[in-house]
Amino acid sequence: MRLSRLAGLPLLAGVLFCTATIAAELPVSDFVKHPTLTNPAISPDGKYLAVAVNENTDSTDANYQLAVLRLPDLKPVSRLSMAPRFVPIDIHWVSDSRLIMALARETGTLEAPSTTGDIIGVDLDGTHKKTLYSLEHRGGAFSNVNSLDIPQGFPSIAGTPRRPNGHFFLNLDRVRVGGTTANLWQYGESDLYDVDSATGHAVQIGEIGHGGMSLLAYHDVARIASGQDTQMNSVAFSSTDGKAWTRMPDSTVGKVFEPLGISRDGRHLYALSSMDGGPNALVSCNLDGSDREVLASDPFSSVTRVMWNPETDTPVAAVFTAGGRPRVEYLGNDTYAQILRALAASQPDQFVSITDASTDGSTLLISVRSDRNPGDFALFERNGMHVRPLYQVLPWIQPAQMPERMPIRFKDRAGVELAGFLTLPNGGAHKNMPLVLIPHGGPIGIADGWFYDPWAAQLADRGYASLQINYRGSSERGYNFQHSGYRQFGTGIQDDLIDGVKWAIAQGYVDPGRICVFGGSFGGYSSLMQPILAPKLYKCAIDYAGVYDMRIEFDRSDTRRLASGQQYLKDAVGTREDAYAISPVSMMDKFNVPVLIAHGKDDPRVPFENATDLRSALDKANKPYEWLAEPKELHGFTSEKHNEALFTMIDAFLARYIGPEHATASK
């Protein structure tokens, strides 16, 4: 293959989406609509695409389907409906004619769907559906559950054999004898099974007496096991038979070691690794952990994604995102690296990636997206070097109407360099603007990224700048940076946010008299804490499903059902008394700005009591607030109708407190 052939590839941007003139005040509905198609997976022969289909988006009980579409015309072949709020995730083709998937239950738009412990198999025409494993139901009345060969535990799909044969690998974290204690799940040992997706028959191909381990297979035998020990340190083991395990040396594992895959020739293990807790590098080593070699690294950002050669199972490119716009480091110049380079060169303002491929690598599924483009998918056919557009993720969004997201870096008060994004409205001088600070949720292990963000886009469309800071504790910068957010929820993290706002003011972007804070989940908590800690900085706050009293998380949040969830609260927050000390409930005498409170009444993650207790405190103190509570909504509104109502309220709320009429008075 010659690069000259690739250089003539059509520009995807001109094919996949249309340009449009910039229009003011786009309808709120444009920013709250859910994508119809998600989680695409291409069949081994490259003839079909499996996708999750989202229907009934005006309801809190969203309905999903698994759909199989013929390529390249996307003509429907079959649709398999899920129960309300159940989502097909982790979709894998196990042969040219059969798929498997895991099920998850929606927990709201502020949280990833929660896996149910069910693995389903189905033919591409929608027939021969079988529940291959179920955490809760294994046999009995569920006569189609074929998991009696496997003990009870938490399952996850661990991949498929290199040559598709209808089987898949299932990783299982066993539940300890006795099952649950006061609804507290605990891990026992970890196993790996080879499962026939047609019959459900399972053969154990690996077992290790450590809970919470991920196992990797090579030639149908578990060869690698990785996870954390009881002190939460990374550990990894190697084996030749899946039963006798040898711990890898500390000189290979270091502080972080997350295996990704084994090369097709069995000579190399690839992993994300950090010896000292800094940003994770992409490394290779022998299967016993020896001969460690760094393939790609960056002093500021972890490797956050790897793209692979589908023929050799070797990495083609490493992606770094923490510094702002994604940076791609190519690993060599094989066929797939050449394809990626050429496609990226044709799309200088987009991020181009290979998201899936046929078994022989002749058909590639390509994703194209950016800060202004929510995403397009296309097929790349190596026979003829042809790009064929498939579908747009949000076809009603016109990239030309969307704002650019400007990566920023600044140093906090302690001299630590932080990164984030400043989104500014299209046009204008970008000086002395009203600002909305948007703290992300989490807070640990989550990060804001460069790609299209509907909250920031809608605010820009209304004339507001928005600021998002990846404060201490955020992901993508390594173990040490992430753990620096522990025990800092109400102190250091909030200081980082304040420092970011002051940086934006100092650069001249922001009118210091027109600043509001708006966040969801932990971002909602920060929206209450920011005016308490910096009372002269903010004019208003928007608390969306936020924590008002951290003690409620200890008592009622769904995170406490898992032993790991309780350990997280202990490590990240401390005791229940510590939780009270950093909660807004203990400092409400210092809260003196108008606040909009929005919460789902059935929120399992941040219980609704947080909102009602906050409202009662504001009523008692005769302080101003606005209120929106929706029945049946969980952690973040799912219904498009409810989201439209929320963002309509936000538009009016911001206009009242930091809108144009306040500009003169603030100078």
Produce the secondary structure layout:
Layout: H1 3-6, H2 12-16, H3 28-32, E1 37-42, E2 48-55, E3 63-70, E4 75-81, E5 86-93, E6 98-105, E7 114-123, E8 130-134, E9 153-157, E10 167-181, E11 184-196, E12 202-208, E13 214-218, E14 221-228, E15 234-238, E16 246-247, H4 250-253, E17 256-262, E18 269-274, E19 281-285, E20 293-296, E21 303-309, E22 314-320, E23 327-330, H5 335-346, E24 351-357, E25 363-369, E26 376-381, E27 386-392, E28 405-411, E29 417-423, E30 433-437, H6 454-461, E31 465-470, H7 479-483, H8 492-506, E32 510-520, H9 522-533, E33 540-544, H10 551-556, H11 563-572, H12 576-581, E34 595-600, H13 609-621, E35 625-630, H14 640-658
Shape: globular
Using DSSP, what is the number of strands? 35
Mean pLDDT: 90
Residue stretches low in confidence (pLDDT < 50, at least 5 long) are: 1-22, 139-145, 177-186
* Secondary structure category: alpha+beta
Overall number of domains: 4
- The CATH superfamily of the largest domain is known as Alpha/Beta hydrolase fold, catalytic domain
Number of helices: 14
- Do you know the CATH topology of the largest domain? Rossmann fold
- The gyration radius over C-alpha positions equals 25 Å
CATH architecture of the largest domain: 3-Layer(aba) Sandwich
Summarize the biggest pleated sheet. Answer: 8 strands, mixed
State the helicity in percent bands. 10-25%
| End-to-end gap | 62 Å
**Numbering strands along the chain, what is their spatial order in the largest sheet?**
28-29-31-30-32-33-34-35
Instruction: Please state roughly what percent of the residues sit in beta strands, choosing from under 5%, 5-15%, 15-25%, 25-35%, 35-45% or over 45%.
Output: 35-45%
CATH class placement of the largest domain:
Alpha Beta
